[in-house]
Each structure stands twice: as C-alpha cells, then as structure tokens.
Write a structure and sequence with these properties.
Layout (H helix, E strand, L loop, with lengths): L4 H5 L8 E2 L2 E2 L1 E2 L10 H13 L9 H21 L6 E4 L2 H12 L8 E5 L8 H4 L7 E5 L1 E2 L4 E2 L1 H7 L4 E7 L11 H10 L3 E5 L11 H4 L3 E5 L9 E5 L1 H5 L24 H21 L16 H29 L4 E4 L10 E6 L4 H10 L2 E2 L1 E3 L4 H6 L8 E5 L6 H15 L1
Parallel strand pairs: 3-15, 5-6, 5-9, 9-10, 10-11
Antiparallel strand pairs: 1-2, 4-12, 7-8, 11-12, 13-14, 14-17, 16-17
Helix pairs in contact: 2-10, 3-10, 3-11, 10-11, 11-14
Length: 421
C-alpha cells in the first residue's frame, strides 16, 4: 500500500499550530481528533445555505432536510446499515442514557444488566443508574495482566434474567479490541440485548453491524475527524419496539422517535463529511483488487467499499508506528506499557506510566514541547482502578492518527527518555 501522509496532513489546518517554537504533534486523538478543512467547510456551508429547522415549505428548510437525509445515508455506509437505523444526538453518553431509560421503562422478568470493568463510564454509568429502578447490575471482570475481558467471567454473568449486555468494541484506556462478535453471540444466546460502545474503535477499524449482529451501537463523530455529535445505530427490529421517551408531537417512526428536539444540524453536516474524508482515503490508497473490497455478493455501495478500505488504510499505516512506539517505550527504564499482549487485536493507542513520576507531570512536560498527550483515567475509571493506578494519577495515553508521523514519534520518545532519567 502506498500511503502519502503529507497528502493527509495538508488537509488539517490545526497542524500549523506551534508551541514554544515547536510544531504541535497531536497524540491526543483518543480524546478527539483534529478536523480536516473539508469538514469545516461543510459545516460553514450548512450555516450559510441551509440554516433552518426541519419540515418547512421554504428553500433553506428543504435544503436542511436534504442534508440530514444525505448524512443518514453516509452514516449508514459507515455502519453497514440502513439509513432508517441511524439516529443523531447530543453525544454518546447522553444517547446511552436515553437508551438505558427506554429499555428500563418496564421491569419484567429480565432484571439484570451485564457491564464490564474495561468500559468507559458512558457505557457503565447509565446502566448502573437503573439500580434505582430495581435492576441488578453484574460486572464482568478483566484480567489486569493482559487488559482483556475475562470471557469466562463474562459468560458466567449472563443468565435468562439478563436484559442488556453492555460492552465496548475497544478500550479507550489501553487500546484492547474485544471479541465483540462472540460477546454479542453469548448475549443473544440468553435472549439479552447487546449494546456496543464503539466510540474508541470507530477510528480504528471497519464496522459491520450486520456481520456482528449487534442490536445497538454508538459512536461520536469527533473521534473520527468530525464535530461533537453522537450517532446511534439501532437494528430495526429492536429499534422499532424501543419504548423511547418522546414528545407527543414527535414521530413514532424510527429513527425520529429517538431524536428529541432540534438536532445539531451543522454537526450532522460535519459528521457526514468526516465519513467522506475516510472514504477518500480508501479511494486514494485502498486496494480494491481482491478481498472484501472487490465487487462481491455483499451488496455494498461504492462509498461503503471506500469507507471500509479507508479504515483499513489508516490502520495499515498506524499499526507499525504503534508497534515501534510500544517496542521503544518498553526498552526505557522505569517505563511500563499497559495493554493487551502481542498478537491480541488492539488499536494504535498506547498507554504507559513512568515509575515515580505522576502522569499529569509527564503530560504537562510533554505539552510544553508541543507533544499533546492525555493523562488520567479518560473516563475508563474502573479499568484504572483495577490496574491499581487510581491513587497515582492514572496513565499517560498516546493515540496515533493518520496525520501522525514517525518523526513525531521519535520526538516523543526522546522527551520520554529525558523524563524517565
């Protein structure tokens, strides 16, 4: 694969920022990526050409409705779903709360919900809140040594009383990719609904909700080059019987029954264009000569094929950089890298600690050099507790994106070596 990182970098205006004379190196992608100019332009274009509420009989309202319909089609190609299975909302956390409140409206014979220790609090807190409605929350453990979900423990927590199994596709704390297909299969085997937090994973691999047989999946556009906006996929049969809270004047049809109030229209325009950016990477650098991206029986649209290829292109570029980073960090005295063992699927997100140096001090020191990293628990608080790091400031997290370079990683490693000394 030929990948032109400069072609990508030229599309991100933020890469021109400097700190103390040093060019900014954005390793903070897991907390939110930078935004290409085309996404900015799409949002501005909406505000200039379409800025009106939905359902009107005049030009700008009609343009607004057309934009939202088009963005739904784009996100459907991102998920591998139908456009009617795509809902937009404020953010993933808020949308999971909406989902939890809807699913928890009637307490029948299924009174248990399974969550995991590796998840972001967005896919834990809303379900834990249902305890006040009489639900029992059961927590699947992780193996702290491998930073992976204990699958035997997860399966043991599932019973014929389980209403929902909520788990992430990939850990935003340490990059572990879980076996979502198997976890969904095990949930369905006991009649439970599978709710997948794909916020971290959405930047790091193709999503195929049909192949995974997921019931609900959520992600946030600002984690894959878009604005702050939540997006939900709901499998039609589950979505249509979801007892959502809505105004009496609101449509009962999916996905509108989930979309309360006026949506963030300019954000929707930006989210759709962010997926188009990924599709462009697939069109420019993807290999369509063989495999699943060739013309096949899967009935994919051209854009769907390009999106899937674009996700693969990014990971083919980022994974060798991540391997280099992990290898080099592991060779530095006092540095400990956290994450799954070699060979286990993972994203290009790498977290570490330096013995006796608080994570926030490391991040601040690197920040002064124009090296932007996150520190703390990143809302994966339970994971950090299980790793025994909650009292010492948590982790330092480095996230790689398609605009990062090997030279930036070298800069980062040199500064970490100095701190470790």
């Amino acid at each position: 694969m030929h990948y032109d990182v400069e072609y990508v970098r030229k599309q991100f205006p933020a890469l021109n920022v400097t700190v103390n004379g040093q060019p900014a190196a954005y390793f903070d992608g897991p907390g939110g990526t930078q935004v290409p100019q085309r996404v900015i332009d799409a949002m501005v274009d909406y505000l200039v050409r379409c800025n009106a509420n939905s359902g009107g009989s005049f030009l700008t309202s009609q343009n607004s409705d057309q934009m939202i319909t088009g963005a739904r089609l784009v996100m459907a190609d991102f998920f591998g779903s139908e456009p009617e299975e795509v809902a937009f909302g404020h953010n993933t956390t808020t949308m999971i709360y909406q989902l939890a409140l809807a699913l928890g409206r009637e307490l029948g014979s299924r009174k248990e919900i399974v969550i995991t220790e590796i998840d972001h609090e967005a896919n834990r807190g809303p379900w834990l809140a249902l305890e006040e409605r009489g639900f029992t929350i059961r927590e699947a453990k992780i193996n702290p040594e491998t930073c992976t979900v204990d699958m035997d423990d997860y399966q043991s927590k599932l019973t014929d009383k389980t209403l929902v199994a909520a788990f992430n596709y990939a850990s935003n704390g340490v990059g572990t990719i879980s076996d979502v297909k198997e976890m969904t299969h095990l949930a369905h085997a006991v009649g439970a609904i599978a709710v997948v937090d794909a916020v971290h994973y959405a930047l790091h691999g193709p999503i195929d909700v049909r192949a995974l047989d997921i019931d609900f999946l959520l992600c946030s556009a600002y984690k894959f080059f878009g604005p702050h906006l939540g997006v939900l996929y709901g499998r039609r049969d589950q979505f249509e019987k979801l007892p959502t809270y809505r105004l009496r004047v609101q449509s009962e049809a999916v996905p509108y029954c989930f979309e309360t109030g006026t949506l963030n229209h300019e954000g929707i325009a930006g989210a759709g264009e962010a997926v188009e950016f990924i599709a462009d990477l697939g069109a420019c650098f993807g290999d369509f000569s063989a495999g699943s991206y060739a013309v096949s029986d899967c009935n994919w649209s051209e854009r769907r094929r390009q999106v899937m290829a674009g996700m693969e292109v990014m990971e083919h570029y980022e994974q060798p950089l991540a391997e280099k980073l992990i290898h080099e960090l592991s060779s530095i005295g006092k540095v400990k890298v956290y994450g799954p063992p070699p060979g286990h699927p993972r994203t290009s997100t790498v977290s570490f600690t330096i013995d006796s140096v608080p994570a926030d001090k490391i991040a601040a020191t690197l920040g002064e050099k124009g090296l932007f990293v996150w520190d703390g628990h990143f809302f994966a608080a339970r994971l950090v507790e299980r790793l025994g790091l909650d009292k010492s400031g948590g982790l330092v997290r480095v996230g790689l994106c398609p605009y990062n370079t090997a030279a930036e990683i070298d800069r980062l490693l040199e500064e970490i070596k100095i701190i470790a000394k």
